[in-house]
Specification:
By secondary structure, the chain is an all-beta fold. It is built from no helices and 10 strands.
Amino acid sequence: QVQLVESGGGLVQPGGSLRLSCAGFGFTFWNRDMKWYRQAPGKERELVASISGDSSRIFYEDSVKGRFTISRLNTRSTVHLQMDSLKPEDTAVYFCYADGLNYWGQGTRVTVSS
């Protein structure tokens, strides 16, 4: 059974940091592109970052470049999103996604507020 379990969200002040994690179960992880999306209240879900299976290709959405870092550990079937210098506009529910699988986890909520 395919599962994606996100964790690490929370409430943080502007300028703070959070590290999101996603564990994958029930599918071949190591050769699959993994992505982080987010959905802010009243907005469509948007791609934030992606990483290829061997970590050689990485993409960031323009607004997070230089602040967010995506990484993965294939031996543990996990993908991470290190988020630094957080801004209120980063507030959203964050989801990880495995390319080729039509499956979304529950997501983890990030709130950036003073």
